[in-house]
Each structure stands twice: as structure tokens, then as C-alpha cells.
Write a structure and sequence with these properties.
Blueprint lengths: L1 H15 L7 E15 L2 E8 L8 E4 L3 E8 L7 E4 L25 E7 L5 E7 L9 E7 L14 E10 L4 H9 L9 E4 L8 E2 L2 E2 L4 E4 L4 E8 L5 E6 L4 E6 L2 E8 L2 E3 L4 E7 L6 E9 L12 E8 L12 E2 L10 H8 L15 E11 L10 E5 L2 E3 L7 H6 L10 E3 L15 E9 L3 E8 L11 E5 L4 E8 L6 H4 L8 E2 L1 E4 L3 E9 L3 E7 L2 H5 L3 E6 L30
Parallel strand pairs: 1-4, 3-8, 9-14, 13-21, 20-22, 23-28, 25-27, 26-27, 27-35
Antiparallel strand pairs: 1-2, 4-6, 5-7, 7-8, 9-10, 11-12, 14-19, 15-18, 15-20, 16-17, 16-19, 20-21, 23-24, 28-33, 29-32, 29-34, 30-31, 30-33, 34-35
């Protein structure tokens, strides 16, 4: 009832602001299992409405969303609305055991939230273990004033492009293996809109390509979602360039490139014009891999096809398909420069007085689960490996002021790592939180291991409930004096996921204006499952309008839960 009242009064507020056309958009997600056949095997997968990717949700800025989740699968699960700010609505954010307990088998739950002040491409996904590998879809937010109000030429067509991965395994079993520090499993192939592509075959049976049919001279807006659970990807279309116009539902100054580099959790909106000679051109998604001594993975590449209308020239079945030249799979340079070239189209003032400075060292460490265990490696932030509560969600514990009773060990994240050398520091396990007061300006510098003889990866760090300014990135060890002087305080890009470069650092800044408990974590599933996470606790303000409201009446109970919990 409280949530319905909130929606009602927000609708009144929108009407008062001249937005009486705001709509209530309603969807039903039926989660169930089905068999899919790829690479000679039938695999049982968990999907929404029998689709992979799941249904794309399309709304207009200012709309309210009701999504009824009906869980007919054998596993408890939640849905996270990735990038949606959820102002004063942390209860609907979705990460299992952070803001809610999983929706149990044969149970229902309705997510209610408003999409206000955001335009562009976001997405939704399961937020329990590896289930997001098959439970995900696009969330497209169009301007209230219609497509003619885009800050770029109106496209002739908009196309969602969802990058995923095909895992020929039981995803719950895969989560069990990661929880036991077994990291040897990898996907068989990337996917483009659910298709593995013609580089994947078994016994001579070649997998289908995703095909995008185009007309010469037309402008296409690709709404690209990285829904895969692991690697960063290079995306190229042979013979064509992209013009990037938005990232994470925030407009950027148009940036032309032949390669889009996108990490897990990120979205990119980019134009391409069908201006090549008529024919067929491969669209290629290539995984970027960290060099040794990081563990090496199989080469992961998938191909779709951009096909011109056959009536315009050579584009028949026997037409040779043009392939793009790809970067080396170990080359992180394209990613570093792609991100460095992004600036805000509509820059907002960057707060200059910082209340809370935090340096977070991203690393791995040894912590044995039991005597004699050969699998002791965990991920950690400032020497603490995150573990989830089991009795109640952190948000529920915070709301009722008994958070410590829901966990075995609660620990505050220190403002800097207790030791400065990577690879040699002690590691502890705890439910790690960082408390900040309402409206505090927070600056976080993420530091990856910076020596080439240590394991270092790119890490896409995602913050729930807030966007943030990306002030700068660099290679090597962060220098608080020199590097801060080079921050972009004029037009920094605004995102909800920031990729920390391999052997380098990334600085972000935001105002903690959204009361609740917000997950901050790496979006690579093996990393977050093994502890690369923390919970940001934003305290209430001093007014009713800055205070977290009551939980919804149908808030899922943790009684008899059977699921893996929030790991992405």
C-alpha cells in the first residue's frame, strides 16, 4: 500500500510539472526453465518468458514501471534494474540479500519504481549468482518530448544489441564451484542477441549468426548492452565507423571510432550509417584478455552479420562476407583510449568540496576455507573479502537498526588499505560496509595492482542507486597530488559503471543523496562471487523527503530460502 501511495503522489507531481502524459507501464516476467540446443548439447537454462535475451522493456522518461515476477524456476532469484537510480526506493533495487531476499520458487513479487530524469539505454538482470547469464534484457528510456528531442539526429531505426555468453553448464552448480574457489570454468562462446555465430560449430553443424538487415544511407542507433558475466569486449563492424552518443543512459559528446570497447554491466548508444558498398559485413565481438601472469582463457569471439538490402547490389547468399581487423586480444590500449575520449554532452557541476576520500585497493588474497584446501584465492577490497548475510537483507537490517544481527561479521571499510604492497597483505572475510551521511560528497579512487609481475585485471566497478562523475584514469600507482591536479572537472562523463584499467587506477566522485544500502562491486561474476564488493550505507536526511520509506507489503521473506544470493 505504501508503494502504491508513493506512485500515486509521484504521478501527481509529474502532472503538476506538465507531465500528465506519464504512463504506468506494466510487464509480467515468468521465470522458468527450458532446454536450448547449442554445440551438440541440450542445456537446461533459466529464462524470462521463454526468451534469451529476455524481453526489452521500453518506457518514456517519467513513466512508472510495475514488473510482476512469477518464479516458476526451482531456484530463488531477484531482478536488478541496472542503472536505474531508484530514488527513495532502495527496496526495489534487487540485489539478493543486499536489498531483498530472493523470490522463492512458486512465489511472486512485484517491482514498482519510477524512471525519472534518465534517458537512454539501461538493462535488467537476475542478481543471484550466475543466473544473469541467461536472465537479462534491455531497458530503453526515450525522451518525454519524443525522438525529435534527441540531442543528435533522429535515427531511422533503433536496434538493441545484447552481448552475452553461452555457458553449457548448470549455472547454480557453477556458482557452487566459485564459492568453493574453483575458477576453471569458462563460457563456450560470446553471443550477439542470443546467437553464437558461425565461428562456433560442432560435428560440422555451424551455429546461426545474428543478422542485421540495413538499407544503404540509413542511420541506425545501436543500443548496446554488455550482459555477459565476464570479459570486456571489442565490438567492430567491418567497413563502418560508430559515433558514440551515450553511455549508461548519459549523453556524451559525439565520439567517432571504429571500435567500441564495452565491459560487463556497461551500455553504449552508438550510431552507424549504412554507407559502405552494398554487401555483407561481419559484426564481431572479441573478448579482451589480461596478459600473464593472469590465468589465460580460451579465445572468445562471436560474429553477427550486417547485410545490405540485396536489391541495392551484391548481397546474395554467395556474397563474401567482409571481416574487420581486430586488435590483439591482450591489448588494453583501445579500451584505455576509448574511455579517455568520452566527455559529457550536458555537463553538470562537479562538487569540489569532498567530504569522504576513499582509496580502494583491488586485489586477490589467500584465505583457506578449511585445512588442506588447495583453493584459497579470494577477491578483496582493502584486504577484506565480502561475504553476504544469510538471515535477512542488509537493507532490512539497516532499516530496523539491527544490521549486525544479520551477519556473522560486520566490518567498516577503511578509508585506505592497511598496507600498500599488493600480493603480500593479510586477508579477512566480513560483510563490509561503508557508512556515509546523506548528501555527503564522496570521492573513491580504485587502484588495481600496478606491477606487471602481479595478477591484474580490468575491473568494471558498478555502484547501485547513483551515477558518478569519472574524473580521471591512469596507469601505474595513483599519486594523490599529481593525478588529482589533472582531473576533468569541466565535462567528465557520468556513468554507473567504471572500468578500472589493468595496472592502473580510476577516480570517481558523487553525491550520496539516496538513502539506503547500495551495492558497490565488480561486475565480473567470479570477482564479486569471491568477494570484490562492499555495501554503501547512505544515512537518512533530516526531512521526510530524504528518509527511506517503509518496505513494500509483499517484501520477500528470507524464511526457507534456497538460492544463491546477490553476486553480481
Amino acid at each position: 500500500m505504501a508503494a502504491v501511495c508513493v506512485l500515486f503522489f509521484l504521478a501527481l507531481a509529474l502532472a503538476a510539472a506538465g507531465r500528465s502524459e506519464a504512463a504506468l507501464v506494466e510487464h509480467t516476467f515468468v521465470v522458468s526453465q527450458m532446454k536450448m540446443h547449442h554445440l551438440c548439447n541440450d542445456t537446461l537454462v533459466t529464462v524470462v518468458n521463454g526468451q534469451l535475451p529476455g524481453p526489452a522493456i521500453q518506457v518514456t522518461e517519467g513513466d512508472s514501471l510495475l514488473v510482476h515476477v512469477v518464479n516458476k524456476s526451482p531456484t530463488g532469484l531477484t531482478i536488478h534494474w541496472h542503472g536505474v537510480k531508484q530514488l527513495l526506493n532502495c527496496w526495489a533495487d534487487g540485489p539478493g540479500m543486499i536489498t531483498q531476499c530472493p523470490i522463492q520458487p512458486n512465489k511472486n513479487f512485484t517491482y514498482r519504481f519510477n524512471v525519472v530524469g534518465q534517458e537512454g539505454t539501461l538493462w535488467w538482470h537476475a542478481h543471484v549468482g550466475f543466473l544473469r547469464a541467461t536472465i537479462h534484457g534491455a531497458l530503453i528510456i526515450r525522451p518525454r518530448s519524443g525522438p525529435n528531442s534527441y540531442p543528435f539526429p533522429k535515427p531511422d531505426k533503433e536496434i538493441p544489441i545484447v552481448l552475452g555468453e553461452w555457458w553449457d553448464v548448470d549455472l547454480v552448480h557453477l556458482e557452487d564451484r566459485v564459492e568453493n574457489r574453483i575458477y576453471e570454468d569458462w563460457p563456450l562462446s560470446p553471443t550477439i542477441n542470443g546467437m553464437l555465430g558461425d565461428l562456433s560449430n560442432c560435428s560440422g553443424v555451424i551455429e546461426e549468426n545474428y543478422v542485421l538487415n540495413v538499407e544503404r544511407g540509413k542511420k541506425y542507433l545501436l543500443r548496446i548492452v554488455h550482459a555477459a558475466v565476464h570479459e570486456e569486449y571489442n565490438l567492430k563492424i567491418a567497413g563502418h565507423n560508430f559515433t558514440v552518443v551515450a553511455v549508461d543512459a548519459n549523453y556524451v559528446k559525439p565520439y567517432t571510432t571504429d571500435t567500441i570497447v564495452i565491459a560487463s554491466g556497461e551500455t553504449v548508444d552508438a550510431f552507424f550509417i549504412a554507407d559502405a558498398p552494398p554487401g555483407k559485413y561481419y559484426m564481431v565481438a572479441q573478448a579482451v584478455q589480461s596478459p600473464e601472469p593472469s590465468p589465460q582463457i580460451p579465445v572468445l569471439v562471436s560474429r553477427g552479420i550486417v547485410s545490405y538490402d540485396p536489391s541495392e547490389g551484391s548481397s546474395g547468399d554467395d556474397t563474401p562476407i567482409v571481416a574487420p581487423e581486430l586488435p590483439d586480444q591482450h591489448d588494453a590500449t583501445p579500451s584505455f583510449y576509448f574511455r579517455g575520449n568520452l566527455t559529457s554532452l550536458l555537463p553538470q557541476p562537479v562538487p569540489t568540496n569532498v567530504d569522504d576520500h576513499i582509496l580502494i585497493a583491488i586485489d586477490v588474497g589467500d584465505i583457506c576455507l578449511y585445512a588442506g584446501s588447495p583453493n584459497c584465492m579470494v577477491s578483496k577490497l582493502n584486504n577484506i573479502s565480502f561475504e553476504l548475510p544469510t538471515m535477512m537483507s542488509l537493507l532490512q537490517g539497516h532499516y530496523y537498526n539491527n544490521m549486525s544481527s544479520s551477519v556473522s561479521k560486520l566490518q567498516e571499510l577503511p578509508s585506505k588499505p592497511p598496507v600498500v604492497e599488493f600480493g603480500h597483505s593479510p586477508t579477512s572475510k566480513a560483510t563490509v560496509v561503508r557508512r556515509v551521511r546523506h548528501n555527503a560528497t564522496v570521492e573513491i579512487v580504485f587502484q588495481n595492482p600496478y606491477s606487471s609481475d602481479l595478477i591484474s585485471n580490468t575491473n568494471p566497478m558498478h555502484l547501485h542507486g547513483h551515477d558518478f562523475f569519472i574524473l580521471g584514469q591512469g596507469l601505474g600507482r595513483y599519486d594523490a597530488v599529481k593525478d588529482a591536479q589533472a582531473y576533468n572537472l569541466v565535462d567528465p562523463p557520468t556513468r554507473s559503471t567504471a572500468l578500472v584499467p589493468i595496472y592502473g587506477w580510476m577516480a570517481i566522485r558523487f553525491v550520496a543523496n539516496n538513502p539506503g544500502v547500495w551495492f558497490l562491486h565488480c561486475h565480473m561474476e567470479k570477482h564479486v562471487s569471491s568477494g570484490m564488493a562492499l555495501a554503501l550505507v547512505v544515512e537518512n536526511g533530516h526531512t521526510l523527503e530524504t528518509t527511506l520509506p517503509l518496505p513494500p507489503a509483499d517484501y520477500p521473506s528470507c524464511d526457507n530460502q534456497n538460492s544463491r544470493v546477490a553476486d553480481e
